[in-house]
Amino acid sequence: MSTPAPCIVAALYQFRDVADPAALRGALLDLGRAHDLCGTLIVAPEGLNGTVAGTREGIDALRAFLHGEGFTALEDKESAAAVRPFRRFKVRVKAEIVTLGVPVAPRERVGTYVRPAEWNALLDDPDVVVIDTRNRYEVQAGTFRGAVSPGIDSFREFPEWLDGHAAALAGKRVAMYCTGGIRCEKSTSLLLERGFTDVLHLQGGILRYLEDVPEADSRWDGECFVFDGRVTVGHGLTQGGAVMCHSCGWPLDAGDRQHPQYEEGVSCAHCAGHTTSAQKAAFRERQRQFGAGRL
């Protein structure tokens, strides 16, 4: 019996004017259904962002369609999954393709791109402050050694964090990174708007770094959280070993799953004290139904 082909996972984004996001949404939904895609795309007046999975044919059809719609400069990364990492296909229209909450102009003014092959030199430079722009639960799974984490729970919180640390960062070279690069398009644009002059960011994000830089040369510790059923990926974008707590969304490694407060589908050490007995009972029932194949 032949081994089934892996599911192709494409993470992509591009900032460009979209005159009619609702019409683009409709066309994308039709294409996704026709090619049995799964995942989520976000469409906004400023562009498109998302992660989609499907067959080789389906992903190629999506790219061809987007190219025809003017998305000819997609930041686009591919990996593979043994099984479909999403349950269904969704296209959402939002005000922003990644929500920062304050006006910036990433198409006009962004930080200097740094290729993955050049990133280690920045990490070694004592005059560079490296900032991880991701959320706390993402940093939990893995991060670059020595990077500063703002400790945020949402990208919307980043501007406030910057306001509180602007004086300490003044006059410094600032290098930033995120999962696939899109958040840094906005965070570096924000720093430039606030008067910073030497701002850099990792081109293609962590995913491109893990794909391009040999593991022996890597400065990455842990795994990279991804927003799909794989939970995390490692070097070479192979599936990682973490599982997600279905109560709070935190990625859990093998050690986390040995904690006395971990109960599959119900709780982990990060959330066990924040949910009621009734909520835990509901989570147990959900887990039971999931195990029975009813969800």
UniProtKB/TrEMBL annotation:
Q: What's its catalytic activity? A: uridine(34) in tRNA + AH2 + O2 = 5-hydroxyuridine(34) in tRNA + A + H2O
Protein family membership: Belongs to the TrhO family.
Biological process GO annotation list? tRNA modification
Q: Where is the Rhodanese domain?
A: 124-218
Q: Tell me if Lipid biosynthesis is a UniProt keyword of this record.
A: no
Annotated function: Catalyzes oxygen-dependent 5-hydroxyuridine (ho5U) modification at position 34 in tRNAs.
Keywords, ordered alphabetically: Oxidoreductase, tRNA processing
Q: Does the keyword tRNA processing apply?
A: yes
State the taxonomy lineage.
Bacteria, Thermotogati, Deinococcota, Deinococci, Deinococcales
By which gene is this protein encoded?
A: trhO
Q: Which domain of life is it from?
A: Bacteria
> What is this protein's name?
tRNA uridine(34) hydroxylase
**Looking at the Swiss-Prot or TrEMBL record, what is one Pfam family this protein matches?**
UPF0176_N
GO MF annotations, alphabetized: oxidoreductase activity, acting on paired donors, with incorporation or reduction of molecular oxygen
Q: List each coiled-coil range.
A: none
EC number(s) on file: 1.14.-.-
Q: Where is the signal peptide?
A: none
Origin species, per record, is: Deinococcus metalli
Q: Which CDD domains match?
A: RHOD_YceA (cd01518)
